[in-house]
Amino acid sequence: MSGEQSGGRRRTGGVRGGRTRRARLRLGTGRARTMVTAMDIRRALTTAELSAAEALFDGPAHEDWSERFLAAPGHLMLIAYVDGVPAGMVSGVEMNHPDKGTEMCLYELSVDEGYRRRGIGRALTLALAEEAKARGCYGMWVGVDTDNEAALATYDSSGARDEGVFTMRGWPLEP
To answer: How far apart are CA 75 and CA 85, in angstroms?
Structure first.
Protein backbone atom coordinates (compact mmCIF):
# COMPACT_ATOMS: atom_id res chain seq x y z
CA MET A 1 0.00 0.00 0.00
CA SER A 2 1.30 3.39 -0.86
CA GLY A 3 0.78 6.61 1.01
CA GLU A 4 2.10 10.08 1.49
CA GLN A 5 2.88 12.24 4.46
CA SER A 6 0.83 15.36 4.78
CA GLY A 7 0.35 18.35 6.97
CA GLY A 8 -3.15 19.20 5.70
CA ARG A 9 -5.19 21.33 8.06
CA ARG A 10 -8.73 21.55 6.75
CA ARG A 11 -11.15 20.18 4.19
CA THR A 12 -14.84 20.65 3.58
CA GLY A 13 -17.71 19.02 1.74
CA GLY A 14 -19.00 15.49 1.48
CA VAL A 15 -18.84 12.46 -0.79
CA ARG A 16 -22.14 10.72 -1.47
CA GLY A 17 -23.17 8.96 -4.63
CA GLY A 18 -20.69 10.70 -6.91
CA ARG A 19 -21.04 14.22 -5.56
CA THR A 20 -17.96 16.39 -5.47
CA ARG A 21 -15.95 17.38 -2.43
CA ARG A 22 -14.09 20.64 -2.87
CA ALA A 23 -11.13 21.10 -0.62
CA ARG A 24 -8.94 24.03 0.22
CA LEU A 25 -5.92 22.84 2.09
CA ARG A 26 -3.26 24.99 3.69
CA LEU A 27 -0.24 22.79 3.63
CA GLY A 28 3.47 22.73 4.10
CA THR A 29 6.35 21.83 6.27
CA GLY A 30 8.37 24.39 8.12
CA ARG A 31 8.04 27.92 6.73
CA ALA A 32 7.18 27.02 3.15
CA ARG A 33 3.47 26.60 2.46
CA THR A 34 1.59 25.48 -0.60
CA MET A 35 -2.09 26.01 -1.27
CA VAL A 36 -4.03 23.36 -3.16
CA THR A 37 -7.19 25.16 -4.16
CA ALA A 38 -8.94 22.99 -6.72
CA MET A 39 -9.01 19.47 -5.33
CA ASP A 40 -12.19 17.54 -5.96
CA ILE A 41 -12.76 14.15 -4.36
CA ARG A 42 -15.36 12.14 -6.25
CA ARG A 43 -16.61 8.59 -6.04
CA ALA A 44 -15.69 6.63 -9.17
CA LEU A 45 -18.87 5.39 -10.83
CA THR A 46 -17.64 4.27 -14.27
CA THR A 47 -14.94 2.05 -15.69
CA ALA A 48 -13.77 5.05 -17.74
CA GLU A 49 -12.98 6.92 -14.51
CA LEU A 50 -10.97 3.95 -13.25
CA SER A 51 -9.09 3.67 -16.54
CA ALA A 52 -8.29 7.38 -16.48
CA ALA A 53 -6.82 6.95 -12.98
CA GLU A 54 -4.91 3.72 -13.66
CA ALA A 55 -1.54 5.45 -13.20
CA LEU A 56 -2.45 5.50 -9.50
CA PHE A 57 -2.82 1.71 -9.43
CA ASP A 58 -0.09 -0.94 -9.24
CA GLY A 59 -0.96 -2.05 -12.78
CA PRO A 60 -3.41 -1.41 -15.60
CA ALA A 61 -7.14 -1.27 -14.90
CA HIS A 62 -8.85 -4.26 -16.54
CA GLU A 63 -12.32 -3.54 -17.88
CA ASP A 64 -13.94 -6.70 -16.46
CA TRP A 65 -12.30 -6.30 -13.04
CA SER A 66 -13.33 -2.62 -12.96
CA GLU A 67 -16.94 -3.53 -13.78
CA ARG A 68 -16.95 -6.17 -11.06
CA PHE A 69 -15.47 -3.74 -8.49
CA LEU A 70 -18.02 -1.04 -9.28
CA ALA A 71 -20.94 -3.48 -9.23
CA ALA A 72 -20.04 -5.07 -5.89
CA PRO A 73 -22.07 -3.77 -2.94
CA GLY A 74 -19.80 -2.20 -0.35
CA HIS A 75 -16.93 -1.48 -2.74
CA LEU A 76 -15.94 2.14 -3.02
CA MET A 77 -13.25 4.13 -4.80
CA LEU A 78 -12.72 7.83 -4.25
CA ILE A 79 -10.47 9.75 -6.65
CA ALA A 80 -8.89 13.13 -5.87
CA TYR A 81 -8.57 15.43 -8.85
CA VAL A 82 -6.30 18.48 -8.94
CA ASP A 83 -6.99 20.73 -11.91
CA GLY A 84 -8.96 17.88 -13.47
CA VAL A 85 -6.08 15.38 -13.21
CA PRO A 86 -6.37 12.22 -11.07
CA ALA A 87 -3.86 12.92 -8.28
CA GLY A 88 -4.78 10.24 -5.74
CA MET A 89 -7.21 7.48 -4.92
CA VAL A 90 -8.43 5.46 -1.98
CA SER A 91 -10.44 2.27 -2.15
CA GLY A 92 -12.53 0.81 0.60
CA VAL A 93 -14.43 -2.41 1.12
CA GLU A 94 -17.24 -2.88 3.64
CA MET A 95 -16.81 -6.02 5.71
CA ASN A 96 -19.81 -7.53 7.49
CA HIS A 97 -20.02 -10.11 10.25
CA PRO A 98 -23.07 -11.43 12.15
CA ASP A 99 -21.76 -10.51 15.60
CA LYS A 100 -19.78 -7.37 14.75
CA GLY A 101 -21.76 -5.40 12.20
CA THR A 102 -20.07 -3.54 9.37
CA GLU A 103 -16.62 -2.00 9.25
CA MET A 104 -14.71 -0.36 6.42
CA CYS A 105 -11.36 -1.71 5.27
CA LEU A 106 -9.17 0.93 3.67
CA TYR A 107 -7.91 -1.39 0.95
CA GLU A 108 -5.49 0.87 -0.89
CA LEU A 109 -4.32 4.48 -0.87
CA SER A 110 -2.19 5.98 -3.60
CA VAL A 111 -1.07 9.51 -4.41
CA ASP A 112 0.77 10.33 -7.62
CA GLU A 113 4.41 11.12 -6.90
CA GLY A 114 4.07 14.67 -8.26
CA TYR A 115 1.26 15.45 -5.81
CA ARG A 116 2.64 13.96 -2.60
CA ARG A 117 3.10 15.91 0.64
CA ARG A 118 0.18 18.20 -0.15
CA GLY A 119 -2.46 16.60 2.10
CA ILE A 120 -4.19 14.61 -0.62
CA GLY A 121 -3.67 11.23 1.08
CA ARG A 122 -4.99 12.63 4.35
CA ALA A 123 -8.02 14.18 2.63
CA LEU A 124 -8.79 10.89 0.86
CA THR A 125 -8.45 8.91 4.10
CA LEU A 126 -10.76 11.30 5.93
CA ALA A 127 -13.26 11.23 3.04
CA LEU A 128 -13.34 7.43 3.21
CA ALA A 129 -13.83 7.57 6.99
CA GLU A 130 -16.74 10.00 6.53
CA GLU A 131 -18.28 7.71 3.93
CA ALA A 132 -17.86 4.72 6.25
CA LYS A 133 -19.62 6.60 9.03
CA ALA A 134 -22.44 7.64 6.68
CA ARG A 135 -22.88 3.98 5.71
CA GLY A 136 -23.23 2.98 9.37
CA CYS A 137 -19.83 1.34 9.80
CA TYR A 138 -18.68 1.03 13.41
CA GLY A 139 -15.02 1.51 12.47
CA MET A 140 -12.41 1.59 9.75
CA TRP A 141 -9.07 -0.21 9.58
CA VAL A 142 -6.05 -0.55 7.32
CA GLY A 143 -3.15 -2.97 7.17
CA VAL A 144 0.14 -1.21 6.49
CA ASP A 145 3.77 -2.30 6.39
CA THR A 146 5.53 -1.18 9.56
CA ASP A 147 8.35 0.42 7.53
CA ASN A 148 6.03 2.47 5.28
CA GLU A 149 6.68 5.76 7.07
CA ALA A 150 4.75 7.93 4.61
CA ALA A 151 1.59 5.83 4.91
CA LEU A 152 1.90 5.63 8.69
CA ALA A 153 2.26 9.42 8.91
CA THR A 154 -0.78 9.90 6.66
CA TYR A 155 -2.95 7.57 8.71
CA ASP A 156 -1.73 9.04 12.02
CA SER A 157 -2.48 12.58 10.78
CA SER A 158 -6.02 11.53 9.95
CA GLY A 159 -6.69 10.15 13.43
CA ALA A 160 -5.82 6.45 13.12
CA ARG A 161 -4.58 4.69 16.26
CA ASP A 162 -1.99 1.94 16.42
CA GLU A 163 -3.83 -1.23 17.44
CA GLY A 164 -0.70 -3.35 17.77
CA VAL A 165 1.47 -5.55 15.63
CA PHE A 166 -0.09 -8.42 13.70
CA THR A 167 1.07 -10.82 11.07
CA MET A 168 -0.59 -11.53 7.78
CA ARG A 169 -0.69 -14.81 5.89
CA GLY A 170 -1.81 -15.19 2.30
CA TRP A 171 -2.92 -17.90 -0.05
CA PRO A 172 -2.01 -17.17 -3.67
CA LEU A 173 -4.82 -18.69 -5.74
CA GLU A 174 -4.28 -19.24 -9.44
CA PRO A 175 -7.38 -18.52 -11.54
So the answer is: 23
